[in-house]
Structures are given as structure tokens and as C-alpha cells.
From TrEMBL, chain A:
Keyword Oxidoreductase: yes
Catalytic EC class: oxidoreductase
Annotated organism of origin: Bradyrhizobium huanghuaihaiense
Enzyme Commission number(s): 1.2.5.3
Aldehyde oxidase/xanthine dehydrogenase a/b hammerhead domain boundaries: 32-141
Record-level Gene Ontology MF annotations: anaerobic carbon-monoxide dehydrogenase activity; carbon-monoxide oxygenase activity; copper ion binding; iron ion binding; molybdenum ion binding
Protein name: Carbon monoxide dehydrogenase large chain
Function per UniProt: Catalyzes the oxidation of carbon monoxide to carbon dioxide.
Catalytic activity: CO + a quinone + H2O = a quinol + CO2
SUPFAM superfamilies tied to this protein: CO dehydrogenase molybdoprotein N-domain-like, Molybdenum cofactor-binding domain
Gene3D superfamilies membership: Aldehyde oxidase/xanthine dehydrogenase, a/b hammerhead, Aldehyde oxidase/xanthine dehydrogenase, molybdopterin binding domain
Subunit structure: Dimer of heterotrimers. Each heterotrimer consists of a large, a medium and a small subunit.
From TrEMBL, chain B:
Domain FAD-binding PCMH-type: 1-177
InterPro entries (UniProt xref): CO_DH_flav_C, CO_DH_flav_C_dom_sf, Diverse_Substr_Oxidored, FAD-bd_PCMH, FAD-bd_PCMH-like_sf, FAD-bd_PCMH_sub1, FAD-bd_PCMH_sub2, Mopterin_DH_FAD-bd
Annotated keywords: FAD, Flavoprotein, Oxidoreductase
Gene3D superfamilies in the cross-refs: 3.30.465.10, CO dehydrogenase flavoprotein, C-terminal domain (3.30.390.50), Uridine Diphospho-n-acetylenolpyruvylglucosamine Reductase, domain 2 (3.30.43.10)
The name this protein goes by in its record: Carbon-monoxide dehydrogenase medium subunit
Coiled coil: none
Oxidoreductase is among the record's keywords: yes
SMART domains xref list: CO_deh_flav_C
GO molecular function terms attached to this record: FAD binding; oxidoreductase activity
KW Oxidoreductase (keyword) present: yes
PANTHER family assigned: XANTHINE DEHYDROGENASE SUBUNIT C-RELATED
From TrEMBL, chain C:
Keyword RNA-binding: no
Record domain 2Fe-2S ferredoxin-type: where: 4-80
InterPro entries referenced in this protein's UniProt entry, alphabetically: 2Fe-2S-bd (IPR002888), 2Fe-2S-bd_dom_sf (IPR036884), 2Fe-2S_ferredoxin-like_sf (IPR036010), 2Fe-2S_ferredoxin-type (IPR001041), Beta-grasp_dom_sf (IPR012675), Diverse_Oxidoreductases (IPR051452)
Record organism: Bradyrhizobium huanghuaihaiense
Protein name as catalogued: Carbon-monoxide dehydrogenase small subunit
Keywords: 2Fe-2S, Iron, Iron-sulfur, Metal-binding, Oxidoreductase
Pfam families found in the cross-reference section: Fer2 (PF00111), Fer2_2 (PF01799)
Keyword Kinase attributed: no
Lineage: Bacteria, Pseudomonadati, Pseudomonadota, Alphaproteobacteria, Hyphomicrobiales
Length: 806, 287, 166
């Protein structure tokens, strides 16, 4: 060996594989303005569509007069429900088993509902057109409060469901009832409550908010009449699902539908579902024979496509007097708005809310969820969350703090006492999940030591005394959150969307020169898949990540996959990538054995090639094997080097983390300051620590926004009062706190590379940390629970209600 | 969100602008920085048939000293205000407040004339101008007149401007050397209007408030001068009881609307706190 | 509505076009000039995705009419790279410090940060945060954007960038 021979470390580093802070491939184009987002797509002759929307939350549509609109220069067509009925598309199925109006059919059920679609030569003419469509409404009483939705005299919202006593998820109790979903053993749980020394009960609400990615939902639909083919460019987190949905509802042959998701400007769950805009643009293209673009504006985005949360969770915990939990009982009133358009796996009307036992060893638990209709926008999407997991984590983390307060016990101590122990994994929860792995005590103690938790509690005690003496008007709160997520939907045994199992996929093709292309069924919206997926392949097969091109989003070329949401990409597609790479590697080993003239079993993989055991100089690099795959494979072997894997995960993964928020609140104004925020995440094996840290920063920022003010609020007459970035709290760099990140590593035992997923953890874990900090700050004044969002005026009101402000 | 159609005019002089506005009548609107008007047009809440862009009028730009006053051309941007040494040294409260308006991009385009003239109760400069005793020069078909800021605001988006008139400059008396000042603005985030804000300009003599003027932003359909609150402060050393009294006097004239920033009671309450805090901070910087 | 002829300089090149008076500058840049790096995020002047540099000012191009830019000198994200086509210090900083994720706010952020550093070549963290407060990012939580700008500031001044200790 001469001095030029790279060391093992150098060879390994040259791959930029797993564990490396690899700089992102995507950034080269994004930093130069060369991304290709949907609104950048411009096709010859392209038209533009825009919606006429309802000013009323609940009204009968008496008449739509488009005669003046059609006189506007550039306006070509006005599509209404009547038009859509001719192609049987006035209504569309939702992912949750309900149906939804595409355009108002007889009545409108929420403010800003789509009423008519104006198609024009450009967006200016389309906007002129919508202002000339005259719609005559007969207002009906609006139903805004979900707690009144099942009153006997509540207005009937869904006349289309008249007489239907059951829906997709079983019996309906009332004309505004959608479903009831129960999990767990009620008798055992009730028995635990009957015996309990200590009980707490609180209605914990998770307000309505919105994912609001910076790029709104948009599409370009182009129907080729000659070929009978429909091409759709869209902001789709799940392009294959969109293709199948379009095939099913538009009755088009699936091979003639081409769905392309180009670069996406953030998703956060907003871009999973199918929206009226997509249907209308497609129909408009079929009607006009021209490509049609639809681009949602921000007000439309906030008020019409896919809110998140609106869960009202009445939560009870039973415990012994020394703080051991014995039972959990939760009833959720779920406000779904006008249509049940949740983007959950089809059999899960409340998503995976039954992860609500959290990180704790509850011997008994029972959960019931009632879904109801109100005159609000449809949705219920997983905003940076795996299907209602953030609601569940908020519910249990808040409730544990309430229990600690009742027991006069430190909330950290209560958690440590009730954690599932490392030796209990795989752990079967009382609500039916099998937790794969965890070491909660280590994570919690690391958080407490790193932050100096005991000293912070001491400081808090001193400040409280000072407050009582009138020396300060500031109160201090410590918000702990120890969350367990459930992500990676999911195993075909319990997860499907419209009957399609929630596997994911990867296809890898290695080229002769030692480069390759990999395609997946996922779709990055900022997660950096082009960077990280190549890192998995690099480590698995020993080809530098720079030599692997990753491509997603084109349904014609990518293998079928269920897309990117619910932190499922790494747990499911990440596994598919590793499995496809291992198929490549297995074939490569046979080729290497043939070329090195040894038995396969005599070879060992060594970073970037195969080496003959005991003969270190006999080595064949993967690069050379790639070449050999195209000219000298063993007799009987097919040439080429490619593989496909469709991965059906055996279980979900269960990332967890320990967060601490230190907050100071001025009781006179309600103004808060996040003094410190520490986030320890355990997402199993870490593929790219730089990207993980970025995901945590972003998720915490969204959690901060949600907990501290980000709300879609309706007034009592059904008007949205927070419909723009002025009132919908979207923090800037000035308001956003500084984030400290940390980690432990507990690999998933069932995942090929041990990875669990991280994108949503900081949102799921962050919200309770902020809310617990606020609640902890006020607790010594006598409060047990203050509802989110904790914006300034509500903090002041809490202080006032507690007598701290006169 | 696309504005309706309009004709665009870019006069080169105030006289031309005035002529255009009076000839075109109610269908015409002057356009300054555009950060209030253009979003309204995009929502089609404003649909002027003519826009008279004032950016072509050189005479509307600039900051100059005129005796004991600083005269600021209406088309002077917030960014230019922030860059002005004259403003920073003679009336630092303007500098402080300009930094709290919207965000950097908006400040490059947003003008003092637009801010004070459109009558939006959320704008910061009007209360400041009242506090500083500024007057506005209005030029119209009937000639030129000066109106005190304190007399200019009549209701939300309703001012003393007559049809065809434009506000061409503001004239601000330079406060006494050694004066104390503070603009306390509570807002939810950068880019938000004030939940409540208070401007204080005072002088101290022998540890007591000698003169005092207090203005209030976004707690009423117009900006307010809190005369009684200022009276309560004068002659005192701003002890706790005085601050309370001044805050209460200010709250008594507030009539904010309930909105996403909070209910009426809260907005008044924090309005009082802004007054107390501004008084304290102003006294602390007074010499 | 009659169209108006406009001319301006964009990224160093003279351009012209016919626009309605109501044509927003951002649409002129994206649709007429085909430069799609400048994005539209909120349409209400809050998010800053549409920020371009006009005559030395950072401007939200969704709140200005194209006719108002007559004769002006505009730089968009497409004009940010070095003359030899390599990434500018800011573009490099965003990549090195992981200052972007979905990339949608990035053009506006970079154009804004460019002007910030021209006016204040060595800003403090607080000055950077204030300086980019007209730009919303939904992905990064801003922390790495701040670092990206610090990286560029250091690189432009020829000093080695060291991340502040946590």
C-alpha cells in the first residue's frame, strides 16, 4: 500500500452515508431560485380558475347568476354544481368515508365554501369574473359550538344524510353525529376508577389551527382529448393516492392519469387530501380542452382547505395516593366541520388517538370519540403529526401535570414513577399498541441534568415567594413534556387508505459507471429526501451518496407508495430503501464472488466493496461490480443491477423525547418570554443529524406558534376571525425562541436500519411543553388548567380570573 | 387576490396631483407607499378607478429644518426617517416608533404621509404627531392650509382632508433639549398593529414632571391625546399613585374594539399599562 | 384596460413589457419575465416570499404595481449568484448552515439578507432577527437562517465563521 491509499475512515467519509451531516442536494437549486413549484408550471394555452365562495356559514343557495361574469373579457366558463353533476362530480368521497360537496349543491355549510369556479384566460380575468357572479342565498342558523351540535333542536346540517342511521364508522346517534369510536376495556377501567385513591378530571381542549405551509395548495390539470390522458401537476404529499382517487371518482383509466408533484413549498399535512380545486381544475380542463391552473390564496388556504385539531378531550386519571396511575378515561368531542375530511388511515376515524396512554404504564384505559358536524371548514388533518397523535400527547401530558399538582408531587417525579420500564419493551398498551423500544428514564434524567431542573424549581419557588410579597409581577413556569409518538403508518394488518395498504416502496437502478438512480413512493416537502435517501443507499451498498440521484413525485416513474405525512417516510420508505439496497448488495456479492473466483460466503462487505475474508488484498469495489453487472455476470444470472422493494412494516415505530420549556410571564400584560427550550429527541438511528436538528427547530417553532396563539377562530355567527397572517399567529424570527437540541439513540428493533422518524416529534412534544409551562406558572395561584392558545390576552385573563390582576 | 382595474397617473408636481384628484373626483385615490391601499384593492374592498401615484413628485421628499420645526415631506419613507440624523437627535421618539412599524420591507416603501393621512387607527404616527404637536400641510384645489394633527382625525379612515386635497408635509416642533420620551407599543408580533400603544414626551424639572404630552394608538377609532392623563402627571415625581391615576385617566377615554388582539377590557387595561410604562421610561431618559 | 409599456433593469439586463396598470410587480416578474424564483406566499404583505431588491431597497413585490417600477433597477434571487455563476456567500451560507428546508421562503430571505448585509455588514444576532422579520419561514425556526447570514457576513469580511456555542 502506498501513501495515497485512503484509510478506512477516508473511504467511509467519502460515501457521506448514514450519520453524516451531509449538505443538501436540493439547496443548490433552491438558493438560486431554480426550484420548480406548481405555480412555476406554465403550459401552452393555460387557463386559470378561481372560486366564488360563500360569505355565509350556513345558507341555502337559491340562485347562481353567471350572466355578468361571462361578459367579463377573458372569462370562458363558470362551473357550478349543476355542471359537475353532468360528470357525476358534484360530490366527492373523502378519505374518511364521508362525501363532500365539490361545489355548493343546494346549500353551503361553511364560510368560504366553494360555490362556483370561474375559468378565464389568466388569474386577473378570473378574479374579475368571480366578482361578477351573483349568488342569492337564504341564510340558515349557523351551528358553531360542537357542544351544541347534538342538541335535539340543533339545525340539520347534512341534509344529504337524512335517514342514514349509520356511517362509515358505525351508528350515528343524531343528525349531526358522524361516528362514535371506542377502544379499551370499559369495565376494567371503571373498576380502577372505583378503587382509586386519587382522581382528576379536566376538559382539555386542543383548539382549531391550520398547517398553513408557505406555498398554498395548487394544481395544473391538463386533459389531452386525443389521447384521453389527464396530467396533473399538484402540491401533493401523496401523488399515487391522488392518482388512484382520480381514477376511482373520475372513472378514468389509471394508466392514463399522470400525477406529478414537483417541488413542494411545505406540506405539514395540508397537502394530503383532495380538494375541490383539484376536481374543478380537472373538469375545467376536460370542458375547455386547455390546461387549467388553480392557485389558492392565503385566505382561502386558512379558511377552506384542511384545518387541524378541534378536539375537546374530557380526561380522567385514576391513581394511588403515592402517585401510581391505575386508569385513564378519555372522551373526545371531535369537531369535524361540515364534512368528515380527515386524512387518516381509513379504519381509524380518530387516527391513532389511542396512543393517549403516552409514555406511562396504565394498567387500564378506555377511550370514546364522538365526531360531529358543525358549520366550519372540513379537514382534521394531521398538522405535522401522525393522525391525532399530537392531540393525544397534549391530552396525556397536560393531564399528568394536573395529576402531579393534585398529588402535590413534582411532575418530573410523577412521570419517572409511571414510565414504561426499559425491560417492558415490546410493551402492550391498554389501548392496543405494541411499543417497539424505549428508554424513557435515561432520556428524562438526561433532560433534567442538562437543564439543571432542580435548580430551576428552586428558582421558581423563590420567585413565587417574591411575587406573593409584591416584589415582582412576573411568574415563572417550567413545562415538561415527555411524549411517545406512534409513526410509520403502517402495517397492512391495520392501516390502509381507501383499501390500499400503507406500505412504501423504493426502486434502485445502478448504472455501469457506479452511479445510480433511486425512486420512492414518498414525496419530500422540505424534508430533504434527495439528500438523506441517498445516504441510506450509500451506507448500504458502498456507493457515494453524491453518485445516487433520488427522484420522487412522478407517478409514471416512481413505484407506488403512500406518500409523505405522519412521519412515515423514514419508518416505511426508509426501510424499503434499505431493503432494495440489500437486494442490490446481494446480487453484487454474487458478481464479486464470480469475479474474485471465491465462494460468496468467503466474502465480507467492507465499506465500499467486497473483500475476501483473510485475504485483504483481494477486493472488488462496488463501482467495479456495477461495471461487471453490465458485462460479465456469472453464467445464468441476468445482467444489470437493480432492485425494487415494497415494504410492509411489521409494526409502527415509537419515537419519544423529553422537553423542557422555561417561561416567564408578566401578569399585567400577559406577555410571555420563553427563556429556554431544551428538546431531547430519540428517533432511533440518526441518518443525517443536521437535517434532524433542522426538523426539530421547525417543529418546535410550529408548536410554539400553536400553543401560544395560532388559532382558526370563528365568532358565534360562524365568521372566521383569523383568516390572514395578521391575525393567524405566524411567528417571525423576532418572536421565535432559541432552541437547544439533544438526543439519545434507542434503535427500533424491527426497522432494517433502526430508524424511527423525527419530523413530527417536536410538534407533538412541543405543544404540551409550552402549555405546561404556562399552566405551571399559574398553578401556584390556584389554577389547574388553562386552555390554549396562550396568547397575551388570555394569559392576562387567567391572571385576572385568579385574582393576580385587579 | 387581484386588484380591480384602474388608470394610473404619475404627476410630477403637487399642483398636477391636486388637479388630477379634483378633476377625477371620488373615483381617484392618491397612492403613497401603498401598503394600506394595495392590500385593500387586492381584496376589492377598495376599487378606485384612478390611482394618482405620488412617487414622481420630488417636492414631497425629504426632511429639513425650518426654524424650530422639522418639516418632513409626505413621501419620506419610514426607512428614510430611520436614517435621518436630524430625527434621531432632535426627536428620537420618531426614530423609536418608526422601528416598531411593520417590518423592514414595509418601512422601505411606507411613508409618513400615508401613515398619518389615511386615518387608520392602527397606524403609529398619528398619535405621535399629536403628542409632538405637529401640524399637517394640506394642499388642494382651494389652496394650502395647515391643520393641527390634533384636529385632523374625525373617525376611522375619516379625516379633515377635503376632496382633491393631499397631505404634502408634516411639520413637527422640535421638543425641548433634554426632553424625555418613550413609545410603548404592545403587539403580538412584528407586523401587527398595536394592541395598545402610548407615546409620551415630557420635560422634567427638579425631579418633577414639568411638561407632558401623551398620545394613544389603536384604542379608539381615532388616535387620542390623553390630556387628563398628562395633567395628572405634571407636577409629580411619577410615584406609583400618580402612574395609576394617569393610566386610569387614559383608560377613561379609550374605546377600542374587541378583536383577535383581545377583548375591550384587556385592550384598555394594557393601554393604561403602556401609559404608565411610557411615563416611567420617558422620565428616566429626560435630562 | 389599456396596457402600458414598462422598461426596467432586472438582474443587470434591460427588460420591457406591456402591462395593465394593476399588474402586480411579482406577476410581471414571474409571468412576463418567466423568473419564477420570486414566490407568492401570503398576498397580504406579511410573508416576504416575494421580496426583491429595487434601487437598493428590499420590497415586497406583491404590494407594488409593475408600472411603479418603471426605470428602476431590480435584483431578484436569480441575480444573487457570483458573476462566475458560483453560489454567493449568502447562498453558500444557507446551504452550509441548513438555512432552508422546503425552499419556498428562501429566495425572499436571501434577497432580504443581501440588502441587510449591504447596510450592516456585521449584524448582531438580534439585528439579523429584526432584519429578516418581514420574512416568514415555516420550516426552519429561523435559527439556522440566522447562522447562514452570520456565515455570509463572516465570509464577506474574510474572517472564519465560528458558530456560537449552544
Amino acid at each position: 500500500m502506498n501513501d495515497m491509499t485512503p484509510t478506512r475512515e477516508q473511504r467511509s467519509a467519502a460515501l457521506e452515508g448514514m450519520g453524516c451531516k451531509r449538505k443538501r442536494v436540493e439547496d443548490i437549486r433552491f438558493t438560486q431560485g431554480k426550484g420548480n413549484y406548481v405555480d412555476d408550471v406554465k403550459l401552452p394555452g393555460m387557463l386559470h380558475g378561481d372560486f366564488v365562495r360563500s360569505p355565509h356559514p350556513h345558507a341555502r343557495v337559491k340562485k347562481i347568476d353567471d350572466s355578468e361574469a361571462l361578459k367579463v373579457p377573458g372569462v370562458l366558463a363558470v362551473i357550478t354544481a349543476e355542471t359537475l353533476k353532468t360528470v357525476n362530480l358534484a360530490w366527492m368521497p373523502t378519505l374518511a368515508g364521508d362525501v363532500q360537496m365539490v361545489l355548493a349543491d343546494g346549500k353551503v355549510l361553511f364560510q368560504n365554501q366553494e360555490v362556483a369556479f370561474v375559468v378565464a384566460t389568466d388569474r386577473y380575468a378570473a378574479d374579475d369574473g368571480i366578482n361578477k357572479v351573483i349568488v342569492e342565498y337564504e341564510p340558515l342558523p349557523p351551528l358553531v359550538d360542537p357542544f351544541k351540535s347534538m342538541d335535539p333542536d340543533a339545525p340539520v346540517l347534512r341534509e344529504d344524510l337524512a335517514g342514514k342511521t349509520s356511517g362509515a364508522h358505525g351508528p350515528r346517534k343524531h343528525h349531526n353525529h358522524i361516528f362514535e369510536w371506542t377502544v379499551g376495556d370499559k369495565e376494567l377501567t371503571d373498576a380502577a376508577f372505583n378503587k382509586a385513591d386519587v382522581k382528576i378530571k379536566e376538559m382539555i381542549a386542543y383548539h382549531r389551527t391550520h398547517p398553513s405551509p408557505l406555498e398554498t395548495c395548487q394544481c395544473v390539470c391538463s386533459f389531452d382529448k386525443i389521447k384521453g390522458e389527464l396530467t396533473i401537476y399538484g402540491t401533493f404529499q401523496a401523488p399515487h393516492v391522488i392518482r388512484t382517487v382520480v381514477a376511482l371518482i373520475a372513472k378514468l383509466p389509471e394508466q392514463k392519469i399522470h400525477v406529478i408533484a414537483p417541488d413542494i413549498g411545505g406540506g405539514f399535512g395540508n397537502k394530503v387530501g383532495a380538494y375541490p380545486g383539484y376536481i374543478c381544475a380537472a373538469v375545467a380542463s376536460i370542458v375547455t380542452g386547455k390546461p387549467v391552473k388553480w392557485v389558492e390564496d392565503r385566505i382561502e388556504n386558512l379558511t377552506a382547505t384542511s384545518f387541524a385539531r378541534d378536539y375537546h378531550m374530557t380526561t380522567e386519571i385514576a391513581a394511588t395516593k403515592d402517585g401510581k396511575v391505575t386508569g385513564l378515561r378519555v372522551h373526545v368531542l371531535a369537531d369535524h366541520g361540515a364534512f368528515d375530511a380527515c386524512a387518516d388511515p381509513s379504519k381509524w376515524p380518530a387516527g391513532f388517538f389511542n396512543i393517549v396512554t403516552g409514555s406511562y404504564d396504565f394498567p387500564t384505559a378506555h377511550l370514546a370519540v364522538d365526531g360531529v358536524y358543525t358549520n366550519k371548514a372540513p379537514g382534521g388533518v394531521a398538522y405535522r403529526c401522525s393522525f391525532r397523535v399530537t392531540e393525544a400527547a397534549y391530552c396525556i401530558e397536560r393531564a399528568m401535570d394536573i395529576l402531579a399538582q393534585k398529588l402535590n408531587m413534582d411532575p418530573a417525579e410523577l412521570r419517572l414513577k409511571n414510565f414504561i420500564k426499559p425491560e417492558q419493551f415490546p410493551y402492550h398498551s391498554a389501548l392496543g399498541w405494541e411499543y417497539d423500544s424505549g428508554d424513557y428514564h435515561t432520556a428524562m434524567r438526561k433532560m433534567m441534568e442538562t437543564t439543571g431542573y432542580a435548580a430551576l424549581r428552586k428558582e421558581q419557588a423563590e420567585k413565587r415567594e417574591a411575587f406573593k410579597r409584591g416584589e415582582t409581577r412576573e411568574i415563572m413556569g417550567l413545562g415538561i413534556s415527555f411524549f411517545t409518538e406512534i409513526v410509520g403508518a403502517g402495517p397492512s394488518k391495520n392501516c390502509d387508505i381507501l383499501g390500499i395498504a400503507m406500505f412504501d416502496s423504493c426502486e434502485i437502478r445502478m448504472h455501469p459507471t457506479g452511479a445510480g438512480i433511486a425512486r420512492m413512493g414518498t414525496k419530500s416537502q422540505g424534508q430533504g429526501h434527495e439528500t438523506t435517501w441517498a445516504q441510506i443507499i450509500a451506507t448500504e451498498i458502498g456507493i457515494p451518496a453524491d453518485n445516487i440521484m433520488v427522484e420522487e413525485g412522478n407517478t409514471d416513474t416512481a413505484p407506488y407508495g403512500l406518500g409523505t405525512y405522519g412521519s412515515r417516510s423514514t419508518p416505511v420508505a426508509g426501510a424499503a430503501i434499505a431493503m432494495a439496497a440489500r437486494k442490490i448488495k446481494a446480487k453484487a456479492q454474487m458478481i464479486a464472488a464470480y469475479k474474485l473466483e471465491v465462494h460468496e460466503d468467503d466474502l465480507e462487505f467492507d465499506i465500499d466493496g467486497f473483500r475476501v475474508k483473510g485475504l485483504p488484498e483481494k477486493f472488488m469495489s462496488m463501482k467495479d461490480i456495477c461495471w461487471a453487472a453490465y458485462n460479465s455476470v456469472p453464467p445464468g444470472m441476468e445482467p444489470g443491477l437493480e432492485a425494487v422493494s415494497y415494504y410492509d412494516p411489521p409494526n409502527m415505530t415509537y419515537p419519544f423525547g423529553a422537553y423542557l420549556c422555561v417561561m416567564d410571564i408578566d401578569v399585567d400584560t400577559g406577555v410571555y418570554k420563553v427563556r429556554r427550550f431544551y428538546a431531547l429527541d430519540d428517533c432511533g438511528t440518526r441518518i443525517n443529524p443536521m437535517i434532524i436538528e433542522g426538523q426539530v427547530h421547525g417543529g418546535l417553532t410550529e408548536a410554539f406558534a400553536i400553543a401560544m396563539g395560532q388559532e382558526i377562530r370563528y365568532d358565534e355567527t360562524g365568521n372566521v376571525v383569523t383568516g390572514s397572517f395578521m391575525d393567524f399567529f405566524m411567528p417571525t424570527a423576532v418572536e421565535t425562541p432559541h432552541w437547544e437540541t439533544d438526543f439519545t439513540v434507542t434503535p427500533s428493533p424491527h426497522h432494517p436500519i433502526g430508524a424511527k422518524g423525527v419530523g413530527e416529534s417536536p410538534n407533538v412534544g412541543g405543544v404540551p411543553a409550552f402549555s405546561n409551562a404556562v399552566n405551571d406558572a399559574f398553578s401556584f395561584l390556584g389554577s389547574t388548567h388553562i386552555q390554549m392558545p396562550h396568547d397575551f390576552w388570555r394569559n392576562w385573563k387567567a391572571a385576572k380570573d385568579l385574582g393576580a390582576v385587579v | 387576490m387581484i386588484p380591480g382595474s384602474f388608470s394610473y397617473h404619475r404627476p410630477a408636481s403637487v399642483a398636477d396631483a391636486v388637479k388630477l384628484l379634483s378633476d377625477l373626483g371620488e373615483d381617484a385615490r392618491p397612492l403613497a407607499g401603498g401598503h394600506s391601499l394595495v392590500p385593500m384593492m387586492k381584496l376589492r374592498l377598495a376599487t378606485p378607478a384612478h390611482l394618482v401615484d405620488l412617487h414622481g413628485i420630488a417636492a414631497l421628499k425629504g426632511i429639513r429644518r425650518d426654524g424650530s420645526n422639522l418639516v418632513i415631506g409626505a413621501m419620506t419613507t419610514q426607512h428614510e426617517l430611520l436614517a435621518s440624523g436630524d430625527v434621531a437627535t432632535t426627536m428620537p421618539i420618531l426614530h423609536e416608533a418608526a422601528l416598531l412599524i411593520a417590518d423592514p420591507q414595509v418601512r422601505y416603501r411606507g411613508t409618513i404621509g400615508g401613515n398619518v393621512a389615511n386615518g387608520d387607527p392602527g397606524n403609529d404616527m398619528p398619535a405621535l404627531m399629536m403628542t409632538l404637536g405637529a401640524s399637517y400641510r394640506l394642499e388642494g384645489p382651494g389652496g394650502t392650509r395647515d391643520v393641527a394633527a390634533a384636529d385632523f382625525y374625525q373617525g376611522a379612515y375619516f379625516t379633515a382632508l377635503e376632496p382633491g386635497e393631499i397631505l404634502t408635509s408634516v411639520s413637527v416642533p422640535v421638543p425641548a433639549a433634554g426632553h424625555g420620551y418613550a413609545y410603548e407599543k404592545l403587539k403580538r408580533k412584528v407586523g401587527d398593529y398595536a394592541t395598545a400603544a402610548a407615546a409620551v414626551v415630557l420635560t422634567m424639572s427638579g425631579g418633577k414632571v414639568a411638561t407632558c404630552s401623551i398620545g394613544l394608538t389603536n384604542v379608539h377609532e381615532t388616535p387620542l391625546l390623553a390630556v387628563d392623563a398628562a395633567k395628572a402627571a405634571i407636577g409629580t415625581s411619577l410615584d406609583a399613585a400618580t402612574l395609576k391615576k394617569a393610566a386610569a385617566a387614559a383608560e377613561a377615554i379609550m374605546a377600542p374594539a374587541a378583536d383577535a388582539r383581545g377583548p375591550v377590557e384587556y385592550r384598555k387595561h394594557v393601554g393604561g399599562i403602556m401609559v404608565a410604562r411610557a411615563l416611567q421610561r420617558a422620565a428616566a431618559v429626560a435630562k | 384596460m389599456a396596457k402600458t409599456h414598462v422598461t426596467m433593469k432586472v438582474n443587470g439586463a434591460e427588460v420591457e413589457g406591456l402591462v395593465e396598470p394593476r399588474t402586480l410587480l411579482v406577476h410581471f416578474i414571474r409571468e412576463n419575465l418567466g423568473m419564477t424564483g420570486t414566490h407568492i406566499g401570503c398576498e397580504t404583505t406579511h410573508c416576504g416570499a416575494c421580496t426583491v431588491d429595487i434601487d437598493g431597497m428590499s420590497v415586497k413585490s406583491c404590494t407594488m404595481f409593475a408600472v411603479q417600477a418603471q426605470g428602476s433597477d431590480i435584483t431578484t434571487v436569480e441575480g444573487m449568484a457570483n458573476a462566475d455563476g458560483t453560489l454567493s456567500a449568502l447562498q453558500e451560507g444557507f446551504r452550509m448552515m441548513h438555512g432552508l428546508q422546503c425552499g419556498f421562503c428562501t429566495p425572499g430571505m436571501i434577497v432580504r439578507a443581501h440588502r441587510l448585509l449591504k447596510e450592516n455588514p456585521a449584524p448582531s444576532e438580534q439585528e439579523i432577527r429584526m432584519g429578516i422579520s418581514g420574512n416568514i419561514c415555516r420550516c426552519t425556526g429561523y435559527q439556522n437562517i440566522v447562522k447562514a447570514i452570520q456565515y455570509a457576513s463572516a465570509k464577506i469580511s474574510g474572517v472564519e465563521f465560528r458558530e456560537a456555542a449552544e
